[in-house]
């Protein structure tokens, strides 16, 4: 099996940070492995066992506890099911599967079946949002409602700007471990508000992981003709990867039942914006998932 990691030392260091991040999330989080048709999936679980299920799908090329932490205010009200995405940093199977067609939808379907959940609410930031759109395409009946946070799969930013502000500094960082290069990348991703802990983890991932290059495919209108579940779209106006205005414009054309909110933030939201997002999500779930 080919590994996503460039070295065993790098893998160990990233998983140490995973554990440290998990401790920061507090008590009450359990973990288990679930067998799927694509291999073992490591799953984090928290919240009341009799609570309504809420799947939270991690952002791409990061670690699950990092993006899970963005939604921690929801832990007390819902049964949170947060899998490490297959083929991304974490404890799940390291072999990548394509996010362009139905594989990711089938992977989520296997997890729903394991937990005997007919349909669930979903939250997905970035790559995780793109997975939800794949699920909406192939198995829409399993989605009660969904929250897409700066999602892949709707619209992309300027290739020139991404190359200038992300790719070139990334190449330099891998060669030199230059703090200024890391700051350039993380600053662009977050409008200079990324936490030091997140910045350190991202630096290790940039250096030690063969990163996923292929986002979930851009969703077509005809793919979502059978998807009618309420959808909340939360975007960042200054998102270098998925610019807010472009994402909203595309979503309003192809997602039948969508409401959109735009924030003055980047791809990684600021702490102030996260508070606003969580309140928006809470109200959306109370209205559409009770």
Automatic annotation (TrEMBL):
This is Alpha/beta hydrolase. SUPFAM superfamilies: alpha/beta-Hydrolases. Residues 68-268 form the AB hydrolase-1 domain. InterPro entries: AB_hydrolase_1 (IPR000073), AB_hydrolase_fold (IPR029058), AB_hydrolase_sf (IPR050266). GO terms for cellular component: membrane. GO terms for molecular function: hydrolase activity. It holds the Pfam family Abhydrolase_1. Keywords: Hydrolase. It comes from Paenibacillus xylanilyticus.
